[in-house]
Specification:
Blueprint lengths: L10 H8 L5 H9 L4 E4 L5 E6 H8 L10 E4 L4 E6 L3 H5 L6 E3 L4 E4 L10 E4 L10 H8 L13
Antiparallel strand pairs: 1-6, 2-4, 2-5, 3-4, 3-7
Helix pairs in contact: 1-2
């Protein structure tokens, strides 16, 4: 059973998200069937993934106006940030984050409601705001303890 159409305030975010896919009408059809739509990264954004348990405390360190869309799946213990296409290099040393390659599909609910346990913590609003990788890296800190080069020899 399909859920009611999202409220007017979610239409811009849904349109932006659907248009990130080569077939936006198929995305909307999937959402109408109460399923997650696979939207590939690489055209508009990349995906930085973290564990929900460790990532959520860092999420709140980022001011709302600096935070792009963030998708959560509590069952999978996962958070996904939408980040700019050049974010992989800047986030490479942040151990708690994995930047997925272009073409990796993020299975997304519409912006206005939860589907299959996934929900937008920060919803796409249609403006295309993405989380700046420098801000995201700073929220995660220095990346944890690393042995000095001399100590590992």
């Amino acid at each position: 059973m399909a859920l009611p159409k999202p409220a007017h305030r979610y239409e811009a975010g849904d349109a932006w998200l659907a248009n990130c896919c080569a077939h936006p009408n198929l995305v909307r059809d999937v959402w109408d069937s109460d399923a997650l739509a696979p939207i590939p990264s690489g055209e508009e954004w990349l995906v930085a993934q973290a564990r929900l348990a460790t990532g959520y405390p860092r999420l709140v360190r980022i001011r709302a106006e600096q935070r792009g869309p963030v998708l959560a799946d509590p069952v999978m213990d996962a958070l996904w940030w939408l980040v700019p296409l050049d974010a992989a290099e800047e986030l490479a040393d942040v151990r708690a984050l994995v930047v997925k390659p272009a073409g990796w599909c993020l299975h997304c609910p519409p912006t206005g409601w939860q589907t299959k346990g996934r929900m937008w913590i920060t919803r796409p609003d249609g403006a295309g705001l993405l989380t700046d990788p420098a801000v995201l890296a700073a929220a995660f800190g220095p990346g944890g303890y690393r042995l000095a080069v001399e100590a590992s020899r």
